[in-house]
Here is the input.
Amino acid sequence: KAGVTQTPRYLIKTRGQQVTLSCSPISGHRSVSWYQQTPGQGLQFLFEYFSETQRNKGNFPGRFSGRQFSNSRSEMNVSTLELGDSALYLCASGENYEQYFGPGTRLTVT
Amino acid sequence: AQTVTQSQPEMSVQEAETVTLSCTYDTSENNYYLFWYKQPPSRQMILVIRQEAYKQQNATENRFSVNFQKAAKSFSLKISDSQLGDTAMYFCAFMKRGGSQGNLIFGKGTKLSVKP
Here is the structure.
């Protein structure tokens, strides 16, 4: 099976802009989760979607949102970007309590 | 709330030797999973090994094995016959069983360097 794919791989945005990141899960996986990875805070859970419904949400402001489509592909959106949003955003898909990660999207906010 | 602590920010080991990475966690849950993930430099996060809390037997995957001490809330990873390709950040993670399967709680990681 193909692994988790994320697009784009790299992104540079300006403060105040918004950004949309995309994730395609492993075929057959209905659970998709998003994580933010920064040197200071480490890996932090953003949210999880299962069958198009948000099932769990981490402690992030409302500027961070996501959705999942009927084919399990997921997008996350960050509005009104701040410098502190610069991070590696990881998507994971899973089943049976195992999560498999994509390569991530490196977002730089200037 | 659950927490995961990795007390060794960095470690190094000689090629072919054995190294143990430490992880402790705190939870009031009784049913959960513990994981070790490997993130090589600039590369994808890879699942190394999974332990189910209700299983007494320690998980093993080839050169990787864990020492799971449920009462002590300890979950260490042993890498035998270390190889240069084992150089990576290693993250210990916790997931509660039931409900959401996507909420992994990670430790801060241990940077392992394997030296030739």
